[in-house]
Amino acid sequence: MHRAWQRVRDLNFSLDGLTGFDVHGKTVGVIGTGRIGTIFARIMTGFGAKVLAYDPQPSAETQGMPGVSLTSLEELIEQSDIISLHCPLTEQTRHLINADRLSRMRPGVILLNTSRGRLIDTKALIQALKAGHIGGAGLDVYEEEEGIFFADCSESGLQDDVLARLLTFPNVLITSHQAFLTHEALHDIATRTLQSLLEFSTGRISAEAQLV
Fold first, then answer.
1. What is the mean pLDDT of the chain?
2. Which of 9, 70, 105, 189 has a 20 to 30 Å separation from 18 between CA atoms?
3. Does the annotation count 165 as an active-site position?
4. Which of 86, 101, 106, 145 is an active site residue?
5. Are 145 and 117 in contact, with CB atoms under 8 Å apart?
6. Burial letters for 160-180: b for 16+ Cβ neighbours within 10 Å, e otherwise?
7. What are 72-91's pLDDT values in tens digits?
C-alpha cells in the first residue's frame, strides 16, 4: 500500500511490482504476549493466519488460544512470514533483532515494530533490506528517535544518516511513534493512570502499577 500510494502521487497508476499476499494461511510471529501482543495475535487468527507466539512468561490468555502456538524465539524467527514485536526494552531485549536473527528469517519476511526502537539493530536491518532478504518493514519506533520524533524537522533537515537511509527504502513504512495516538487509547491511558494512582494511594497496588 505504501509503494502504491507513492506511485499514485506521481500519477503512476500501473500495477507492475505491486503484487502482495494474503495474510490468510501465512505464519505470523508475535514476540511478546502482553495485552497488546495478545490482542494482535487474536486479530491475526481472525484473518486465518497461523500464529506463533514467544514470551518468557506467556500470558494465560495466549495459552490455549485457538490458532496460536507458543514456541521458542528461534523457531518463531525461522518459521514466520510476518514478525511483530510487542515486548518491553530491557538489557535482554536490546537488539533482540540483530544481524544473525535477520539472516535466519524467511526471505521476504515482513517485520513490524510498534514497541521500542532499540529492539532492532537498525544498521543490521538496513543491510538486510539492501540485500533484499527482508521483504519490508513497518516501524512506529526508531532506536535513536529522541529529538527527532514528535518534532517538525521539515525546515531544519534530518541529521541522522541512519534514519535518512532507512527512509529511502520504498518497502519501509515509518511513523513517528504514534501507534498510541487515538482518542480511545488516550482516554484508556488516562483512565488506567488514575486507577493506578488511586490503588497506590489506598494501598491496593494493581499488577500494572507495581514498581519492579
1. 92
2. 105
3. no
4. 145
5. yes
6. beebeebeebeebbbeebeee
7. 999 999 999 999 999 999 99
